[in-house]
Amino acid sequence: MLKTAQLALLALSSLVSLASGTLYESVEQLPTRNVSDYYDFIVVGGGAGGSAVANRLTEDPSTKVLLLEAGSSDFDNLDIEVPSFAPRLTGTQFDWNFTTLNQAGLNGRSIDYARGFVLGGSTAINIMAYCRGSKDDWDRWAKVTGDEGWSWESMQPYMRKIENPTPPADHRNTTGEFNPSIHGVGDYNSGDTIGIGWTQATISNGQRVNAATAYLVPVMSRSNLDIVVNTQATKILKTGSEDGKAVFRAVQFTDSVNGPLYTLNASKEVILSAGAIKTPHLLPDVGQNLQDHPLTTISWTVNSTNTLDNGRTNATFAAELLQQWNDTRTGDLTLGPGNQLGWLRLPDNATIFRNTTDPSAGPTSAHYEYIATDSFVSFSEAFPSTGNFFTMFSNLVSPSSRGNISLNSTSPFAHPLIQPNMLSTEFDIFTMREAIKAVRRFMAAQAWSGWILEETSPSSAAQTDAEIEAYIRDTCFTVNHVTCTVPMGKDGEASSGSGALNSDLTVKGTVGLRVVDASAFPFIPAAHTQVPTYILAERASDIIKGVYQRESLPESLSFAVAHSSEVK
Ligand SMILES: Cc1cc2nc3c(=O)[nH]c(=O)nc-3n(C[C@H](O)[C@H](O)[C@H](O)COP(=O)(O)OP(=O)(O)OC[C@H]3O[C@@H](n4cnc5c(N)ncnc54)[C@H](O)[C@@H]3O)c2cc1C
Ligand SMILES: *[C@@H]1O[C@H](CO)[C@@H](O)[C@H](O)[C@H]1NC(C)=O
Ligand SMILES: *[C@@H]1O[C@H](CO)[C@@H](O)[C@H](O)[C@H]1NC(C)=O
Ligand SMILES: *[C@@H]1O[C@H](CO)[C@@H](O)[C@H](O)[C@H]1NC(C)=O
Ligand SMILES: *[C@@H]1O[C@H](CO)[C@@H](O)[C@H](O)[C@H]1NC(C)=O
Ligand SMILES: *[C@@H]1O[C@H](CO)[C@@H](O)[C@H](O)[C@H]1NC(C)=O
Ligand SMILES: *[C@@H]1O[C@H](CO)[C@@H](O)[C@H](O)[C@H]1NC(C)=O
Ligand SMILES: *[C@@H]1O[C@H](CO)[C@@H](O)[C@H](O)[C@H]1NC(C)=O
Ligand SMILES: *[C@@H]1O[C@H](CO)[C@@H](O)[C@H](O)[C@H]1NC(C)=O
Ligand SMILES: *[C@@H]1O[C@H](CO)[C@@H](O)[C@H](O)[C@H]1NC(C)=O
Ligand SMILES: *[C@@H]1O[C@H](CO)[C@@H](O)[C@H](O)[C@H]1NC(C)=O
Ligand SMILES: *[C@@H]1O[C@H](CO)[C@@H](O)[C@H](O)[C@H]1NC(C)=O
């Protein structure tokens, strides 16, 4: 059996008591809730993007930030902390519970579309895989925005800044699984993702690390950072005009559908970090270009009585595992996503390339991903009550399908219409089909014989191309990587067709409004999306600091700076 364990990463995870007073549990407790121009920045949403930017902007003690979060502050809930309980979190108090419209490419099915509803956002309910994306993914961002600052080389300082590699909970020797030199060649975070590598995850000391524990808990004592939870932004308000552009420096918010509405002005900016569903919801007239990663799974029975299934099928054993985790932060419950991630490309001579352009960013980006898991996993079948299994996820990570988000109602509390439009292109269905065929060839290799027994139903019945296609369309789910709904593009170009944001993440045609979350991606990376969001937010913070440091220079000094650059 495969050794089940991962490497753990992500810095800033030290724990500090929440008692220090800048975390408000309700809007009624926020003393500044209607004091105009008190805050320099108001950040909407405390997930990956919002937590990172709130932390970095308040490093300067003179910068006052308000972070609004719709969900609760209960990110130290046991189900959030225990890594292997992650699948329990969707459809609970921690989930917005979005569902998609019926999708033609999924045989007309609607699927659940989870998003985190708690401080930490989706990083508090996700599966914790740690991926930077490939060199080509980042270089494509630089190309489509015309901003070299987004390239793989330019982003290296941010990639390293957020990482604090820690050993896996079993303290095994990780030589050959992980290359310290690229974090701080060979593992899938080197820029060239292609191959199979040991999973790196946002797990430290056997416990989930999320945006709240990494970026907010350590700085709760900063008097210039106010965080208010259970508070939803309902509208971004126009506050004036500058140079013919609308200024949006006010946020309206409330604690419930019928609660009192408050409005606060920021003296500098409103920063939208509400994620790829809610940020476009707050910014009507955007929401095209949605990109996501579809997945399906195939399982096999195995010749073993010792797999992670036992923690699901044997209640006595499950109780022992929880006791072990609680006492020592060790054991099976410290495990996140599968032990290995594979990043693979179609062959260059695949028939699809005869009449279709490759949608991937380039040769360092995969077309599809495998996740190897030492248990039964399915998003369409009931879990067997007995037995031991092995599962391979096949994820389409360079899709060419594009979806959209639109309004169903003017009420900010009504869910928007979400149409991911998955598997709507020939390339996407071709690649998923080839991924299934390739995974079967891989699992038929001699090395697995005597351990892998037989493929389970119903995938086992899908053998012809048409049957495999039907299996995919009937079972496809999402890796929960919805992104790109308010994409950045080249500065100055009209927002239609070439991005709703400038390359510095400001909303085109506006003043005082910026987006710092996964909706700003122009293309989805061939990677899991939390780390690209953290890295984007790290650079965004430096961009923002740069703007206002310049503006706050004393008059005489700013003249001197302008003068000397004229002389050059
Ligand atoms: C089930 C699941 C599994 C995943 N697995 C992985 C994985 O293994 N690895 C990986 O890299 N990525 C994974 N992801 C994706 C990753 O978590 C997201 O891409 C990332 O968190 C996006 O960051 P964000 O800042 O854009 O949004 P989020 O992290 O979702 O944060 C948005 C925040 O804004 C808040 N908010 C929204 N609207 C409002 C409003 N109107 N007012 C106030 N607050 C608001 C939300 O409650 C939330 O806290 C997964 C996601 C899910 C849901
Ligand atoms: C602040 O808002 C509350 C609720 O709307 C209102 O009752 C109160 O009078 C406001 N206070 C100030 C100083 O405006
Ligand atoms: C916000 O700013 C605008 C423009 O400066 C001003 O007209 C408005 O009254 C302010 N609103 C609040 C609630 O501070
Ligand atoms: C999501 O659904 C669960 C289960 O019904 C519920 O407890 C939770 O409150 C819902 N989430 C939101 C944000 O309404
Ligand atoms: C880890 O393994 C490598 C290669 O097998 C070996 O060189 C190294 O000494 C080991 N480290 C420890 C701490 O055992
Ligand atoms: C269930 O787990 C307990 C505790 O580890 C073990 O003693 C028992 O044999 C297991 N039962 C089965 C059916 O494997
Ligand atoms: C877990 O450990 C804590 C102390 O760290 C203890 O208070 C709690 O009761 C334990 N819970 C279980 C289920 O053992
Ligand atoms: C692609 O090339 C390989 C190796 O040369 C060959 O075996 C395969 O048949 C080719 N496939 C197609 C579709 O031409
Ligand atoms: C591309 O080629 C395939 C196989 O030859 C064919 O089935 C398909 O219709 C073609 N697609 C387009 C868009 O021309
Ligand atoms: C969203 O995409 C679907 C499928 O392509 C399309 O039919 C629909 O018109 C789009 N909606 C909007 C609002 O763009
Ligand atoms: C759209 O709004 C209508 C009217 O309120 C409602 O019946 C319908 O369920 C909504 N559709 C979705 C997908 O939420
Ligand atoms: C199962 O494994 C045992 C011991 O490793 C081996 O003897 C046996 O042949 C295997 N059974 C099958 C069906 O492969």
Automatic annotation (TrEMBL):
It holds the Pfam family GMC_oxred_N. Coiled coil: none annotated. InterPro entries: FAD/NAD-bd_sf (IPR036188), GMC_OxRdtase (IPR012132), GMC_OxRdtase_N (IPR000172), GMC_OxRtase_C (IPR007867). SUPFAM superfamilies: FAD-linked reductases, C-terminal domain (SSF54373), FAD/NAD(P)-binding domain (SSF51905). The keyword rRNA-binding does not apply. Residues 399-537 form the Glucose-methanol-choline oxidoreductase C-terminal domain. Keywords: FAD, Flavoprotein, Signal. The keyword Transmembrane does not apply. FAD binds at residue 118. Its cofactor is FAD. Residues 39-294 form the Glucose-methanol-choline oxidoreductase N-terminal domain. GO terms for molecular function: flavin adenine dinucleotide binding; oxidoreductase activity, acting on CH-OH group of donors. The active site is at 481 (proton donor), 528 (proton acceptor). Residues 1-21 form the signal peptide. Belongs to the GMC oxidoreductase family. This is Alcohol oxidase.
